[in-house]
Amino acid sequence: MTEAWPNPPKAVPPPRCPGTPRHHSLGPVAAVVVTYNPAAGLGDRLARLAAQVDAVLVVDNGSASETVTALEAVAEASPTVSLILNPDNLGLAVAQTQGMGAALAAGFAWLLLMDDDSTPAPDMVAELTRVEALRPGVFGLLAPRLRYPESGRVPGFITEHGRGLWPRKRPAPESGLLADPAFVIASGSLVRAEAARAVGPMRADFFIDYLDVEYCFRLRAAGLRMAVVGEAVLDHALGRQAAHRVLGRTIWCSHHSPFRCHAMARNRLRLWWDWGARHPGWMVQDMLALVFQLWRVLALEEDGRAKAAAILRGLRDGAGLSRRRSRE
Fold first, then answer.
1. Before 13, cis peptide (omega within 30)?
2. Which of 110, 139, 180, 312 shows a CA-CA span of 20 to 30 A to 215?
3. Level-2 CATH architecture, domain 29-236
4. What is the pLDDT of residues 237-257, one digit of tens each?
């Protein structure tokens, strides 16, 4: 049963659909940006985004006062930027749901999810729009090709069309489409409003991490398709990326905090429990990724023992939460 969308908090000023949308083949598009003590340059990133969509909904999760003041100045200077200011950090899931709910209530046809540290290429939304114009109604979610600016890497995408249980990881296309990936990250994802209504809000009890994987699994279970658009590009920050040379190979570490390590482990185990039978190839791959993460934090990262302990606690907590949820 699909969870109902909660009533969103009031945005200031209220977002409004334009009479003439910027992208005619899409209809009105609202970007939803969640902020929490963002890095420098947020004003520039919001300006780049506002130039590509019809409205920008910023949901701040209890940032410091200087960030709130800067956001209020941006909203005052731009009539298409609206703010929802949470007094505390309610988690990425709740904040995304608040912004998406406000955009749906205002009648926007598409929702563009963005992290506060992601920077879209100037034509990112236009390239996503082109796919909808050529194949109207086919996809419920369109995602860009990602770049990690700290490392210059371009990550691939997992599909479930490999041999047996083993999924395939395909490189991100420089042009054309990669249809039906197992999942995409939330930042840069352009979600059709009808798809968002069909699958419901983000899963609030996840707080952060693996929200996008769980959301994509629900989209696919509802019969909705996804695609990665090679010409659409998003620069996305991923932790504190650092390269390490091991036996002649470059190993990249994200250097997440123990809190994030715990959240990732807790939520990935909950997804194994809920979705592993339906996506066994993804689950096998994700289990191996966990083993590799444990090796990385112990061998290459600072506070490795604390992070490894947080991962093990996360797995224990995820198992307990999953058992309790299954009995409800």
1. yes
2. 312
3. Alpha-Beta Complex (3.90)
4. 776 777 778 888 888 788 889
